[in-house]
Amino acid sequence: MHFTSERHLDDGVVERSFTLGEIPGILWTPASAPAPTPVILLGHPGGLDTMYPRLVARARQSAAQGFAAATVELPGSGDRPRSAVTDEARADLRRALAAGEPVTDDIVDRLVLPLVDQAVPEWQATLDALLALPGIGGPVGYSGGVISIGTRLAVAEPRVEAAVLFAGSFVPRAIYEEARHVTIPLHVLLQWDDKGNDRQAALDLFDAFGSREKTLNANMGGHTGVPQHAGDAAAAFFERHLKRGGVS
Amino acid sequence: MHFTSERHLDDGVVERSFTLGEIPGILWTPASAPAPTPVILLGHPGGLDTMYPRLVARARQSAAQGFAAATVELPGSGDRPRSAVTDEARADLRRALAAGEPVTDDIVDRLVLPLVDQAVPEWQATLDALLALPGIGGPVGYSGGVISIGTRLAVAEPRVEAAVLFAGSFVPRAIYEEARHVTIPLHVLLQWDDKGNDRQAALDLFDAFGSREKTLNANMGGHTGVPQHAGDAAAAFFERHLKRGGVS
Fold first, then answer.
1. Which of A32, A53, A122, B13 could link B9 by a cystine bridge, Cβ 3.0 to 4.6 Å?
2. What CATH number did the domain enclosing B10 receive?
């Protein structure tokens, strides 16, 4: 992990850009925090520059709770090399949507599974590097989309102790099977009236998660209109699960 | 409203039993509260004596927030005269369930609609009496089951400004139509793994509510296993909507 820049936000949060090999990322650390500081991995749909305003807002909320937060660019997004397979799948998806045809399992698999296959080990490598930093070392959370990445990571990475997942469309059938093996506490956010989202698929995935503690928090407001109180509830979830050594 | 007994709970909450005509009820008021004090109507499935431990726990939580809380016995429950129509519908329901037959709309209508028709004006009369008491007069909330009663009340009674509804089975078709006319903020609790509950019916009803602000909070734990954090989220909902004159 190689830090490339550092700046201090007005609330005392330190924001550091880094690269991990070829992967760009950002780490936010609170002005004051317990040591070791728990860290939340901030998931997103790809495109750090576009997502930055929403990511920094989520990082500030985490910092206010005494948590560090970190994110990395997704494979094929931002300045990272594009994937021919994914580009072709995305073209097929757009063609199906434009023609009003069903989005087949084949398209979803080609669009999402290679992304998950590549992104999950990258998140794990990021976690290795983060936990090697001085001061970082508490329980780890994952927060955000892509929900298929969050699901795989929750199964594959035992250091992730709790996850806030954003329900979104296009979940491969294989991920529903993996969801049954998730056992960590989950807090799933669903925007009920999100036109671009397949609500039934989100409900099916929530049902599939094997976790004994799982909460579905569904709200109005459209894709990006998660209400403040839902953000507060997600923050309370991490407060319960990432403080006191992760004991809920 | 005629008070029949009064006792002081250890947290300073004053519990007063009353009768309103033939209807028994209980009023809990906080040790200290702003005047006028907002009041939450505590819904339940009927049977004040059986429900008392859970009702008093909810009333204590409301009191800790500075809210009064009140409940009345449902028509046909506890010591109130039974209804031949409802008893017959309940017998038909048990017969259908025992035989593994579908519960028809006819049975649900006969079981629930007369109860709603009678209970809603009784809640309104209770509210008239409560708001005539010295000190009570803030915004009004409704909390609990029967969800069909809560739905009708939310449409019929403009003094109810926000409602926490417990999703439960057996909602008449007519109530789904009424749900479209609900406009107040709603917080709907659903126990995802409640075997006695029709989950799809609960999701359909949540979808039908016309409210611009509505939250579905679904959790594991079975029928009576609402987790503490879900109770806290419901309390936070009333905090937002029943304080500061009900402005959210």
1. B13
2. 3.40.50.1820
